[in-house]
Amino acid sequence: MAKTKSKKAASKAKKPAKPKFKLTRKHHIILGSFLFFFALGLLVAFISFLFTWQFDQSIVTSSQVDSQPKNWLSMFGASISHFFIFKGFGVAMFSLPFMLALTGLKLFLNLDNLKLLNIWFWGCYVILLLSLSLSYFAHDFPILGGVVGFELHELITNYIGAIGLLLLLIFMFIVYLVARINLTPEKVVQFFNKKSESVKAEFQDNTNQNAATSKAHYDTNKTSEGQSASAEATDNNTTEEPSTEPQANEVEFENSLEPKNQNSSLTETNPSDQNSTENKAQQAEKVVIKSNDDDLGMEVEAAKEEDEDDVDTKSKKIVENFGEFDPTLELSNYQFPSTELLEDHGSGSIKIDQAELEANKNKIVDTLNNYKIGIAQIKATVGPTVTLYEIIPDAGIRISKIKNLEDDIALSLSALGIRIIAPIPGKGTIGIEVPNQNPAIVSMRSVAASNKFQNAEMQLPIAFGKTISNETFVVDLAKMPHLLMAGATGQGKSVGLNVILTSLLYQKHPAEVKFILVDPKKVELTLFNKIERHYLAKLPDTDEAIITDNTKVIDTLNSLCIEMDARYDLLKDALVRNISEYNAKFKKRKLNPENGHRYLPYIVLVVDEFADLIMTAGKEVEAPIARLAQLARAIGIHLIIATQRPSVNVITGMIKANFPARIAFRVTSKIDSRTILDAGGADQLIGRGDMLFTQGNDLIRLQCAFVDTPEVEKITEFIGSQKAYPDAYQLPEYSGEDSQSTLANDIDERDKLFEQAAEVIVTAQQGSASLLQRKLKLGYNRAGRIIDQLEAAGIVGPFEGSKARQVNVPDLMALKQLLENEKNA
Ligand SMILES: Nc1ncnc2c1ncn2[C@@H]1O[C@H](COP(=O)(O)OP(=O)(O)OP(=O)(O)O)[C@@H](O)[C@H]1O
């Protein structure tokens, strides 16, 4: 018994040695480079084998070695190539060195996204397919398919015959195309359609120039001799020779309509022979009218489709003639700032201090041992400001034990900024973050120039800084969709805001994004004044775009609510769900600007010192902010709110519920940390841009990038010196409750369309600006102004949020009376 007990104890004691067999990074590098160079050698041997195999074969196969092989890798090359190519699968084995090289590279460079299993599976598949195919098609050259390929081919042919094998090979080839290359028949058809469309477009271009003249000729003479060729091509109504018409489209076209056309005369359907999609629609229309006689139910549906087609074709025609709408056209020469404008701030490279790492490791091991926690393995990841020590505790130690001892361990390690993550989400390890003695500054330049940021396919990419493993961290503000930021004074909030704004300046054209900046401190964001006419949005009739006065904030927020409602109306009208779909549709010219549609830039509202705002304006700001936060995500309005004081009366439940993305710089107490992040940790940060970020689930520790005021100044100066829009982006007018009585009621200053608008409103009994926009084809701002004038005249009631205003005049007679009374007064 005693013996077995002691054996058990011994085996328990030995257990921790297990992880030693795990391949470390060093092993990976050595193995990776071996595989890579072995693959290279193999490739050289294979290539050389193609020229020398006949000579070398006798040497390799005979046991006496009296002459030297000619292979570039001598006997090794000759033998291995003979084995793989001649005796194996033939030239298909050339895939092998590539698979080996990729495996080596993955190990050497630690490429996580290279899927080895996939590569090897499909590599072997290709070898088999190629070897069989070559044995099948080049039966007389067995070297191509190799002995195994050859034998396999014989075996399969015996079972299913040559035709069976051919079918099998075709099937295998299709499987490869579909499963590996993702090629589908639809994609092939799409590709050829695109090709034919571009040919069509070229053809159209050439013929368009002559179209007008040829039409004139047609009207007068029916045919024109000088330009007969082009006239035939553009105005096919006159010709009765579809066979002379160009190309494939025509075939496709006629095929689709053949059944309906069969009974109809050729002359009627001929107009459709034209290549353009516009004519396609015309043809469809005609066919339906005609086929009404022949066939019943079908035509009704066809007519519906045509209507849609018609809208589509109209927009396609405009796109063909003018190209897609380009929102950046007005400032087409706009130059994005270069990253050269930013400072390096000491290169940003991380220096690994071995002595420091060792000392910290010992401290952690000792501390944990004090609490009787043995460590099986420890790994350090050095980040710009903190180093993450990842620990695998001895078998049998419960993570909850470490979690309970979190505070004691932090105290024993006695360093500011220690954070324990037990366990690290997604891993079975425990993380201890220890600040570096010499933190590296993460320059904005390094993150802005990073591939991750430059190639980010996001709507509003923001490069916040670097993660603990020194990776650039880029997130999409549009996905957040709003951001709450808090931190005690001097911990990096203003720098953080500048990082967000500069990120957007580096990625977005002035036509694509507009900022509304609220800066009660009056000093933090003033630099952005220089880009007022490029990037800022403001209320009409205000001088300063950057808002420093709290009462103005209320007007701006309410105006943003109006903009939000207007945008929702536009989205509804366009039958789309969000701003990106809307803008895509607008670019394709499927939305008519005369109906109030316009390209919608993203709007980013930044409020610095939110606490200050809440203290002075309270409910008045909270309500519109909450409303915007709840509803504005789909229509491209995003809020960023920063505060020094994250107390619960500032960051209320309503605000928190709508701001899932939060950033905490260092705060003074655990309570503050809880208020912002719903978790502790922000009180343990070390300041100077050290931050925690959450988007609703995990906390990510980041080092915020650093951008200094002179750098921001350089960027804004660079942008400000370029051609700008005539004015800042105009937000809709908002007349606060106080100013209602002061609404302009001067009859002479009324809009020219005032009376017409009043009639529209009274007839519809609905006081909404969007109605005026649609009926009178007005822009949003003008419609808004007229509504204000109607309110001043007492025709409509006051603003009621998202509801339409009440109409105070029952009918047109009463309106006439009212307006006459006004004039006589
Ligand atoms: N990411 C960073 N990297 C390095 N240093 C930083 C970083 N962020 C801030 N700092 C340092 O901290 C100082 C204060 O930062 P910042 O002005 O952003 O603080 P703040 O939180 O806005 O303070 P306040 O709320 O009082 O305005 C900066 O001048 C800079 O020296």
UniProtKB/TrEMBL annotation:
A GO MF term: ATP binding
InterPro entries (UniProt xref): FtsK/SpoIIIE/SftA, FtsK_4TM, FtsK_alpha, FtsK_dom, Ftsk_gamma, P-loop_NTPase, WH-like_DNA-bd_sf, WH_DNA-bd_sf
Coiled-coil ranges from the UniProt annotation: none
Organism superkingdom: Bacteria
Record bears the keyword Membrane: yes
Main location: membrane
Biological processes, Gene Ontology terms: cell division; chromosome segregation
Pfam families: FtsK_4TM, FtsK_alpha, FtsK_gamma, FtsK_SpoIIIE
GO cellular component, one term: plasma membrane
Residue stretches making up the FtsK domain: 470-674
Tagged with keyword DNA-binding: yes
Keyword annotations from UniProtKB, A to Z: ATP-binding, Cell cycle, Cell division, Cell membrane, Chromosome partition, DNA-binding, Membrane, Nucleotide-binding, Transmembrane, Transmembrane helix
Position of the signal peptide: none
Entry-linked SMART domains: Ftsk_gamma
Protein name: DNA segregation ATPase FtsK/SpoIIIE, S-DNA-T family
Organism: Psychroflexus salarius
